[in-house]
Write a structure and sequence with these properties.
The complex is a heterodimer of chains A (403) and B (265). By secondary structure, chain A is α/β, with parallel strands linked by helices. Chain A is built from 15 helices and 14 strands. Chain A has helices spanning 29-43, 46-60, 70-76, 95-108, 122-134, 144-149, 151-159, 174-187, 205-213, 215-228, 243-249, 320-327, 338-352, 358-371, 392-398, and strands at 15-16, 19-23, 66-68, 80-85, 113-118, 137-143, 163-167, 192-195, 234-238, 259-267, 285-288, 290-294, 331-337, 379-384. Chain A has a 6-stranded mixed β-sheet with strand order 3-4-14-9-10-13, sandwiched between helices. A 4-stranded antiparallel β-sheet of chain A has the order 1-2-12-11. In chain A, strands 7-6-5-8 form a 4-stranded parallel β-sheet, sandwiched between helices. Classes of the chains: A alpha/beta (403), B alpha/beta (265).
């Protein structure tokens, strides 16, 4: 299909087909214009990119390795599962790839204050970390419900010198944190840089976040060939807003023969309505947080409350590029329920000695499901987007254990 | 000529400025809205802006956020807001009504279907906060086909070439957001607003309303001295928040004071 070869989206206005765009109030438009111009200049500037790469190497610890989960693969009895170890990054998740890039951009633009929204808290931690690293003031907006279920990360953010603002409006989760961050930005637009944590939001954010996360897939393309002599049969990543997934998928869009599989949060099951899977549940396209994308909404266009065991996937929308990749058929999107994700979480602990994030456990569960139906010489490459230390209280609670 | 245009031109001819109050439809409860609209007109409103409640009001401060939450808790929808406008029209065929809200409920209904239903209900203008001119072409065409004005926001951050872009699509009036921030934020700075309006007028031939941060008669009077219309929102929504008891009298009394101050400007 033509759409897949010579892939060059988004266009100038930030559209991926009918998705993406710049749906924000007027006050933000000039700031987004300025950001777009500065960002394009920065990524074309060899000096800027050299500093970004240098930070990723010496501060984050890149490249992150690929690890063959041999015991787990044997136990499953089918395809070989390989893990891209983003959990080994400094701060414990892929989020820092993006926050380093955006903080360098903020510094280049002369902004001394950064704000961020966070769901699971990983992006909040990654933002607070880089703010400390570059000497910036940092305010993190977090839904009050997420503050309660991600207590370790809340404390980490505070230790790093940032302020956490619990958001009490709406459903008190990630989407409300994003609303509040937007309100802060519109009020403090001259001094403040908004570090969006996922590949969503108004143009240029989906592109910008992708460009700072595509290092994941780029490393994979080289590393996996060194290990197995070829590209994998499929790449798999979890999708909330979809930043680790787009980072993994983007370099593979034009690679023929590699299936691209995004895994959404099925919650209690897509059929129950209690989930966070706009792509799998065939939600209609809609406009939220500055972009058009598939969006969980009722028949009146009001955004519905979502549910997932993992705060990081508990979001009613999805990055516009994922909507586009689904639309053109280049990527497949499926949902994994809470209980399946939890089982994969325990499996990885048990067979590989790795505690995965609950978000990443959705991708692992999908890999396990597929591996069983595949041959032993086939290969699935999974983005292990974060480590699961932050989820230990949630998992304990699910298992009826008081810590 | 649209109802908004003729209203604003008549005011201009008599040397007066337009008073445009905003309330959220369905707040504090759905059966209060139509009567509240009439109470605003009794207090001297020239145009009524009716907020369409949305689950994620990103551009609004806490006062209007809470108004949206109260309205949504009573099951308000865009369809019900249109029914309220139709009800209002039964006894007031003169006062223009502008719907102000967010893009997604309109998207969900579909631009053409919305434009037709809005015209049938008696809506005169539509202001969609998160639909800037870059994304507004299709919606603008659908509304224009039904004779409905598309109202745009302009902000302190808006550049001159963008004003020209807005001028090509806008009709009725434009709404200048007087400060960087959300609705109901701190008081505005009249001098800097006056400077900005002078620049905007070089590119715009339609009237300019000013809102965000106008909380009392004195500020309204100052703004009336420099703008074509004064928009008051959060201050009125605070009256709604105080409950239904005596609401209409309170709305009329507050607005009458504002109206008198503006007419002395």
């Amino acid at each position: 299909m033509n759409d897949k070869a010579n892939y060059s989206l988004p266009d100038e206005q930030g559209h991926f087909g009918i998705f993406g765009g710049i749906y924000v109030a007027e006050t933000l438009i000039p700031a987004l214009d300025e950001l777009r111009v500065e960002f394009e200049k920065a990524i074309a500037d060899p000096e800027f990119m050299a500093e970004y790469r240098n930070e990723l190497k010496h501060y984050v610890g890149r490249p992150s390795p690929i690890y063959h989960a041999k015991r787990w693969s044997e136990e499953l009895g089918g395809a070989q599962i390989y893990l891209k170890r983003e959990d080994l990054n400094h701060t414990g998740a892929h989020k820092v790839n993006n926050t380093i890039g955006q903080a360098l951009l903020a510094r280049r633009m002369g902004k001394k204050r950064v704000i961020a929204e966070t769901g699971a808290g990983q992006h909040g931690v990654a933002s607070a970390t880089v703010a400390a690293r570059y000497g910036m003031e940092c305010v993190v907006y977090m839904g009050a419900e997420d503050v309660a279920r991600q207590a370790p990360n809340v404390f980490r953010i505070k230790l790093l010198g940032a302020t956490v603002v619990p958001v009490e409006s709406g459903s008190k989760t990630l989407k409300d944190a994003m609303n509040e961050a937007m309100r802060d930005w519109v009020t403090n637009i001259d001094s403040t840089y908004y570090i969006i944590g996922t590949a969503a939001g108004p143009h240029p954010y989906p592109k910008l976040v992708r460009e700072f996360q595509k290092i994941i897939g780029e490393e994979c393309k080289t590393q996996i060939v060194e290990m197995i002599g070829r590209q994998p049969d499929a790449v798999i990543a979890c999708v909330g807003g979809g930043s680790n997934a787009i980072g993994m998928f983007y370099p593979y869009i034009e690679v023929e023969g590699v299936r691209i599989i995004g895994v959404e949060a099925g919650g209690d099951g897509v059929e129950t309505g209690r989930h966070a899977a706009p792509l799998t549940s065939n939600a209609k396209p809609g406009v939220l947080h500055g972009q058009r994308s598939f969006l969980m909404q009722d028949e009146n266009g009001l955004i519905v409350e979502t549910h997932s065991i993992s705060a990081g996937l508990d979001y009613p929308g999805v990055g516009p590029e994922h909507s586009y990749l689904k639309d053109i058929g280049r990527a497949e999107y499926v949902a994994i329920n809470d209980d399946e994700a939890l089982a994969a979480f325990h499996d990885l602990c048990k067979y590989e000695g790795i505690i995965p994030a609950l978000e990443s456990s959705h991708a692992l569960a999908q890999a396990a499901k597929m591996a069983k139906t595949m041959n032993k010489d086939e290969v699935l490459l999974v983005c292990l987007s974060g480590r699961g230390d932050k989820d230990i209280p949630t998992v304990a609670k699910m298992s009826g254990i008081q810590l | 000529m649209s109802r908004i245009q003729s209203t604003l031109e008549a005011l201009k001819a008599s040397g007066r400025k337009a008073l445009i109050p905003f309330i959220t439809a369905g707040d504090p409860q759905p059966d209060a809205t139509v009567a509240a609209m009439h109470a605003l007109v009794a207090g001297g409103a020239d145009i009524v802006e009716l907020g369409v409640p949305f689950s994620d009001p990103m551009a609004d401060g806490p006062v209007i956020q809470r108004a949206s939450e109260r309205a949504l808790a009573h099951g308000m929808t865009l369809t019900r807001v249109l029914a309220m406008v139709a009800e209002f029209r039964k006894t007031d065929s003169k006062t223009p009504v502008v719907l102000m809200g967010y893009a997604n409920p309109v998207e969900a209904m579909g631009y053409e279907a919305f434009a037709e239903a809005a015209r049938a209900a008696g809506v005169d203008g539509v202001l969609t906060v998160d639909l800037p001119p870059e994304e507004a072409e299709a919606c603008a065409a659908a509304l224009k086909a039904q004779g409905i004005d598309l109202i745009f926001l302009l902000a302190p951050t808006t550049t001159e070439d963008r004003v020209a872009h807005v001028a090509r699509l806008a009709s009725g009036y434009v709404y200048y957001v007087s400060l960087k921030g959300v609705t109901g934020a701190a008081n505005l700075d009249v001098t800097s607003v006056a400077d900005k309006l002078a620049t905007l007028r070089q590119h715009l031939s339609i009237p300019i309303g000013v809102g965000f941060g106008i909380r009392d008669a004195a500020t309204a009077q100052q703004v009336a001295g420099i703008a074509d219309a004064v928009v008051i929102g959060s201050r009125l929504v605070q009256e709604m928040e105080a409950g239904a008891a005596g609401l209409n009298d309170r709305l009329t009394t507050f607005l009458t004071g504002v109206r008198q101050a503006m007419d002395q400007a």
